[in-house]
Write a structure and sequence with these properties.
By secondary structure, the protein is mainly α. It has 17 helices and no strands.
Length: about 450
């Protein structure tokens, strides 16, 4: 059985402490008034290599001088809310990123169960350990959403009744985008995902302790049913938790796009943790063919993600409908480095490194690629949230790094704690011997 070493435990707690400190700095550094916000923008006129924030502020005020004072006042208030949103957005991006890894692993795990795959049972305990983070991660996400409903931040503009009162489009969506229904849906999603994870984990352990395959068959039925539930709720979750931060924009591909991001991120983490555990001698029956298959999924889903990204971008850009294309115009103009950087990290890098079949069997090569892929998909979530919540007032600084450290430390702590609760290799799965003999 895996032992959660004190070194790893202390390391994860240190990460959490550093992250909490960084996020705290972000929250105490926000402006307390509109005047202070204007001073902060002016003081950071060298941000992003060209002073675009200061330039944008000067341009906006110049235009306001030709219009009226109300417009200038609205712009200053908007910047003020953007700066106050930054620590919340940094926390939300990191919280969602690590939660989506666990949710992506849960989907991959359910697919393996429902397909009765023969190659993967040796990896089931690793997947179950990662999905344990759904409980604390889901609670944190829900708390952030509740605090948003209570107007502790302005990430979701449709939650502001004054904004809705002057926006006919948001009024038309009020039947779906309203705080009460929003939280009910969130609780329903999280409850269903966590319920399946707990039931499947219980049946998985019961199978090892039984003399028949009743638990295995029950797990198959639960997994098949869960996949239907997941495909519907994951899309709705992506609309609610991500797409609604910019409620004037929508994409019919968005649910699939978010799914691809979480799926490849989850598979990448499975591969990295499996390689780590095997290097420590805890997964002796896992061989290079298992790692090769995980790397193939990393490669394949990276291509799938790129297909969805390009399909969404190309159709919107070619149609050039103002209310749709502005989504990408803003990201290309204001987020050029993270926008194009994440495409290189999520497509070009895995394409070049994992195309060769032999490289998929080299552990350090898979880990190196995995690190880049995870960083790329963090930037993907960053690009989904930040433009709508902080606009031009973005950077990757102490609050963002603090969020990654805190939630990364919490993820490591919870996952490896869960891995230590049961033997890492199942014993009575009907396909366990096939998994042990998996070679090609």
């Amino acid at each position: 059985m895996y032992t959660f070493s004190n070194r790893l435990k202390i390391g994860s707690l240190i990460l959490m402490a550093l992250g909490l400190f960084g996020m705290g700095i972000g929250f105490v550094s926000v402006p307390s008034s509109i005047e202070e916000a204007k001073e902060m923008v002016a003081a950071h006129d060298d941000d992003h290599g060209g002073g675009h924030e200061a330039a944008a502020t000067e341009q906006s005020h110049a235009e306001a001088g030709h219009a009226d004072a109300d417009h200038a006042s609205e712009h200053d208030e908007h910047v003020y809310h953007q700066l106050r949103n930054r620590p919340w957005s940094a926390m939300y991006v990191a919280a969602f990123f690590f939660f989506m890894i666990a949710l992506g692993v849960l989907a991959f795990y359910a697919v393996q169960r429902a397909a009765q795959a023969g190659w993967s049972p040796l990896l089931f305990r690793v997947m179950e350990g990662i999905t344990a983070y759904l409980v604390p991660g889901g609670i944190i996400i829900f708390v952030i959403l509740v605090l948003s409903v209570l107007h502790m931040n302005h990430m979701f503009v449709w939650m502001d009744s004054e904004v809705v009162a002057h926006d006919e489009l948001l009024q038309g969506k009020a039947g779906y985008l309203n705080p009460t229904f929003f939280l009910i849906r969130a609780a329903f999603f999280l409850g269903g995902w966590i319920l399946y994870r707990e039931v499947s984990r219980k049946l998985s352990l019961a199978q090892d302790a039984s003399n028949d395959n009743v638990s295995f068959k029950k797990n198959f039925r639960w997994s098949a049913g869960f996949l239907v539930f997941y495909l519907v709720t994951e899309s709705m979750m992506s609309w609610d938790w991500i797409m609604s931060v910019d409620p004037h924009w929508f994409s019919t591909l968005f649910g699939w796009y978010v799914f691809a991001s979480m799926f490849v991120s989850g598979i990448t983490v499975i591969a990295m943790i499996t390689i780590y555990l095997k290097s420590r001698g805890y997964l002796p029956d896992v061989n290079d063919s298992h790692i090769h298959d995980l790397a193939k999924f990393m490669f394949g889903i990276s291509i799938f993600w790129t297909y969805l990204w390009f399909g969404q971008f190309m159709l919107i850009w070619y149609a050039n409908i103002p209310e749709e294309v502005t989504y990408f115009v803003q990201r290309i103009d204001q987020y050029r480095l993270p926008f194009f950087g994440m495409i290189a990290m999520n497509f070009v890098f895995p394409l070049l490194l994992l195309m060769n079949s032999d490289y998929k069997r080299v552990n350090w090569f898979v880990v190196m690629t995995g690190i880049v892929v995870l960083l790329g998909h963090y930037l993907d979530v960053f690009n989904m949230i930040m433009p709508a919540t902080v606009g031009e007032q973005w950077t990757i600084g102490i609050p963002e790094i603090g969020g990654v450290l805190f939630f990364g430390g919490a993820f490591i702590f919870w996952v490896f704690r869960a891995l230590s609760k049961a033997p890492l290799q199942p014993t009575r799965n009907p396909f366990i011997e096939e998994s042990r003999q998996f070679h090609y």
